[in-house]
Specification:
InterPro entries: Kinase-like_dom_sf (IPR011009), MAPK (IPR050117), Prot_kinase_dom (IPR000719), Ser/Thr_kinase_AS (IPR008271)
Protein name: cyclin-dependent kinase
Number of helices: 13
Structural class: alpha+beta
EC number: 2.7.11.22
CATH topology of the largest domain: Transferase(Phosphotransferase), domain 1
Number of strands: 16
CATH class of the largest domain: Mainly Alpha
Shape: globular
Helix content: 10-25%
Keywords: ATP-binding, Kinase, Nucleotide-binding, Phosphoprotein, Serine/threonine-protein kinase, Transferase
Strand order of the largest sheet: 1-2-3-5-4
Distance between the termini: 73 Å
Catalytic activity: L-threonyl-[protein] + ATP = O-phospho-L-threonyl-[protein] + ADP + H(+); L-seryl-[protein] + ATP = O-phospho-L-seryl-[protein] + ADP + H(+)
Length: 443
């Protein structure tokens, strides 16, 4: 450790103390974690779970272990230095984060979790204190409680700080999955909006009470396996109806509310994975992306010898309540390449899709209209469709006109006959609103 000068203590945990230190060889600031227990051999050091896992992991969203030092039977782990943790930022913040700031932070955390879970590792102790921040970069840290998926149950029942602990862990289930990380992500996401924990229990029993008062009491149809867990520990669920999460997190968009609900749900099998979460509309609001999402929107371009365009319409419902349903649509069209002379029109054509945040307070309006168009197709008279204008009315964002050349290999768009999209044929979920004056039909 003669190469490092300890500057000050910046953290104190169960397994060790963390210091800000200076590397005297290159003047780099690092973080040094001094383990509290003694280590008498290198084999003992390298068998430490945190060391084994961090040696396997290398990702921009995971804190980097730079060096391991053993000196006088003491073990020092040298990490890259980060400015602070997410808890410190939330504690000192005077106003809530903007939704774009939350998207930036949580997308990085989820990317790190995708990498971890794909490599068979789940963290088990995700909380704001274990998310380290430097400028706009956030990284997952502290793998002392992490486990490999291939290890066998039973797992220890004490994992994660109580406020971010999944209900199956609170009920002492011995066989849980990486879905416990996703519960913690949902709780952290909600906290970023309000700067207050979503489930601030003062004990394990109070923690279950806090969860029940927000999500409502589970039954066999909601959590078939979970309702059996309380019997083993002589616990009874608190009887409470679910609350409207929009009232608990009033500054969150409906996309954010939907994501929290899909992460903090009773049955771990129904929680979104990290990969699915990154494909959720919350992370694609008002942004152009180069290709369509696969879930819940799936646009399949089938290139065959048929010269007719391929059209796919995807529908999904954001809410289960019949009186408060939101309908999302995805429309995409691209003709197949059947003729050599048409090849130059589509070989270099790009696809662009737009996700709009426009259905909050507009339950009767169609919201998502991703459209594909070749970048190299030019026309003298661009056509602004009524759907494009509806985009700008609903989302209050600028949108370039969607133009179609008659000579292009893409399908021509003509007015829809009024009776072809009668609202009654789609049931009470959908109705065309006044901003859409002219519907579109793909021939």
């Amino acid at each position: 450790m003669e190469r490092y000068r300890l500057l000050k203590e910046i953290g104190n945990g169960t397994c060790g103390n963390v210091y800000k230190a200076l590397n005297l060889h290159n003047n780099e600031i690092v973080a040094v974690k001094k383990m509290k227990r003694k280590f008498y051999s290198w084999e003992e050091c390298l068998s430490l779970r945190e060391v084994k896992l961090l040696q396997k992991l290398s990702h921009p969203s995971i804190v980097k272990l730079e060096e391991i030092v053993k000196e006088n039977n003491e073990l020092f782990l040298i990490f890259e230095h980060m400015d602070c943790n997410l808890y410190q930022i939330m504690r000192d913040r005077q106003r809530p984060f903007s939704e774009s700031e939350i998207r930036t932070l949580m997308s990085q955390v989820l990317q790190g979790l995708v990498y971890m879970h794909r490599n068979g590792i789940f963290h088990r102790d995700l909380k704001p204190e274990n998310l380290l921040v430097k400028n706009d970069i956030i990284k997952i840290a502290d793998f002392g409680l992490a486990r490999e998926v291939t290890t066998y149950a039973p797992y220890t029942d004490y994992v994660s700080t109580r406020w971010y602990r999944a209900p199956e862990v609170l009920l002492q289930s011995s066989a849980y999955s990486p879905a416990i990380d996703m519960w913690a992500v949902g709780a952290i996401l909600a906290e970023l909006f309000t700067l207050n924990p979503l489930f601030p229990g003062e004990s394990e029993t109070d923690q279950m009470y806090k969860i029940c008062t927000v999500l409502g009491t589970p039954n066999a149809s909601i959590w078939s396996d979970g309702v059996q867990l309380p019997h083993a520990i002589n616990f009874n669920f608190f009887q409470s109806p679910p609350v409207n999460l929009s009232e608990v997190i009033p500054n969150a968009s409906l996309e954010a509310i939907d994501l929290v609900q899909q992460l903090c749900c009773w049955d771990s099998r129904n929680r979104l994975t990290a990969e699915q979460s990154l494909r959720h509309p919350f992370f694609h609001v008002g942004t152009w992306i180069s290709c369509p999402l696969q879930d819940p929107l799936s646009v399949k371009i089938n290139q065959t010898t048929d010269s007719s365009p391929k059209l796919e319409l995807s529908l999904w419902d954001f809410d289960n309540e019949s009186e408060d349903c939101f309908l999302g649509l995805s429309l995409a069209v691209e003709s197949s390449i059947g003729k050599p002379e048409a090849y130059h029109h589509s070989h270099h054509s790009g696809k662009e899709f737009l996700f709009c945040s426009g259905y909050q307070g507009h339950s009767e309006q169609l919201v998502f209209w991703p459209l594909t168009a070749p970048d190299n197709v030019k026309t003298d008279t661009p056509v602004m469709t009524s759907l494009a204008s509806s985009y700008m009315v609903n989302s209050q964002m600028s949108l370039p006109p969607f133009s179609v050349s008659e000579q292009s290999s893409y399908a021509c768009i003509s007015p829809l006959r009024p009776n072809l999209m009668d609202c009654h044929s789609f049931g009470p979920m959908m109705s065309l609103s006044s901003p859409i004056q002219q519907s579109l039909f793909f021939q």
